[in-house]
């Protein structure tokens, strides 16, 4: 069955670089895209970016200057790196499978909580 | 960016009641690109309705969606206790993909 699992550090300091990994199973990264969605505590969902099956990447311009998404198809892993962290980057980070045809996020990981605090 | 204005922000309903959530887009969207998610407390979002009106796998028939252009709606025909959640609309039509601000459903 389709599964996604995020992993990464829970606590970060301001100005540090966040590195998260999304490990997928039950589908191929060369057949489906994977997106990252952030949810500040108690707030709504914000799309950050998606790496598509062909390897192209779309970023949300609001975070594009700080964000990098990549993948290792041999390991079925997608990576998120975001630099210059600030306390407002605190929240739960989800990876989700996405289809390019209509931008659906049809399967989601459990999410990883990231706190940015000194 | 396409802004999705979702209303109401919260609903308190009785079991068995019909509830409807509206999602209005700042620009016209093809119905193929408007989707709805359910996020139960403490859980990850789950796809409920895709492409305006298609139920995702395993979603009960009491959930439905409709709309076109800039106006979309999501309906639960008879609310059950297990439907307590926040519901979000989302557009996958143009970059950046955006979500509505959410509608929190509670049961009386």
List keywords for this structure.
heterodimer; A: 118 residues; mainly beta; seven-stranded mixed sheet; four-stranded antiparallel sheet; 0% helix; 53% strand; B: 108 residues; three-stranded antiparallel sheet
Description:
The complex is a heterodimer of chains A (118) and B (108). Chain A is an all-beta fold and 118 residues long. Chain A has strands at residues 3-7, 11-12, 18-25, 33-39, 46-51, 57-59, 67-72, 77-82, 91-99, 104-108, 112-116. In chain A, the strands form 2 sheets. In chain A, strands 2, 4, 5, 6, 9, 10 and 11 form a 7-stranded mixed sheet that branches. The mean pLDDT of chain A is 96. Chain B contains no helices and 10 strands. The interface between A and B is medium-sized, with 25 and 25 residues.
Broad shape of chain B: globular
Distance between the termini of chain A: 40 Å
- Number of β-strand runs of chain A: 11
Radius of gyration of chain B: 13 Å
Question: For the CA atoms, what is the radius of gyration of chain A?
Answer: 13 Å
Shape of chain A: globular
The whole-number mean of residue pLDDT values of chain A reads 96
Largest sheet of chain B: 7 strands, mixed
- Beta fraction of the residues of chain A? over 45%
Largest sheet of chain A: 7 strands, mixed
Assembly of the depicted chains: heterodimer
Order of helices and strands of chain A: EEEEEEEEEEE
Break the fold down into its secondary structure elements and pairings.
The complex is a heterodimer of chains A (about 120) and B (about 110).
Chain A: E1 3-7, E2 11-12, E3 18-25, E4 33-39, E5 46-51, E6 57-59, E7 67-72, E8 77-82, E9 91-99, E10 104-108, E11 112-116
Parallel strand pairs in A: 2-11
Antiparallel strand pairs in A: 1-3, 3-8, 4-5, 4-9, 5-6, 7-8, 9-10, 9-11
Chain B: E1 4-7, E2 10-13, E3 19-29, E4 34-39, E5 46-50, E6 54-55, E7 63-76, E8 85-91, E9 98-99, E10 103-107
Parallel strand pairs in B: 2-10
Antiparallel strand pairs in B: 1-3, 3-7, 4-5, 4-8, 5-6, 8-9, 8-10
